[in-house]
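User: structure tokens for this one?
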Amino acid sequence: MIWFLLALLVIAAFVLAVVVLKVPVGGREAVAAALLLGVAGYVTQGSPSQPSSPSTVTEGGGEEAAFLVAARGKVTNRTIPPTNRYVVIADGFARNGQTAEAARVLLGAVEENPKDEDAWLAMANALVAHSDGVLTPASLYAFRQAAKADPKAPGPAFFLGLAMAQSGQFGEARELWADLLERTPEKAEWRPVLAAELQQLDAYIKANAPAPAPDSQVGPESRNGTGAEPTAPSRD
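Assistant:
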């Protein structure tokens, strides 16, 4: 019975993607691959005959990885979701907190096409999530490769700035976001998000700025305790 229900679920998900979400012909193979990957994972790791039990994510960054996957789909100049089979599968891993597996899958994507900006960016975000939001040399390299692959894409600068801010590099993050905002079209759907993030970062930097040092130059009024000019002592 469980296998019959599983088959119905897979078919329903595929029909939903094709009919309702209108996935293009080129992306249907990727959707099918992602669904089959899910079935394979259930077959190899699940126990259909056993009662259900709570599952736990063994890797870190699950919630952040899912957020980054969703955000990456919004901060982009593209009008359709990614159809690269590697990226689709890796996004599925990332949403489930399996960030290391996502990065491994994406490694295959960039080996096949070193100019795949979306794959490089997805890998960078997966690596950041895997390190609990900390920017590492590996994720920084992936961000730079994404920017190199498509210099006009907003994603690399936006998410690199986010990772820098999370890592305490506030000045560098602000510089990236300010430059990105300056070259972002007024009608871009993600421009308000970028502007809001930059505004919050500015407020944080201002609130945590060190207090100015006291003036070391002491005026005459401070030396004698009054505002009057000092006078020479009388000889009388």
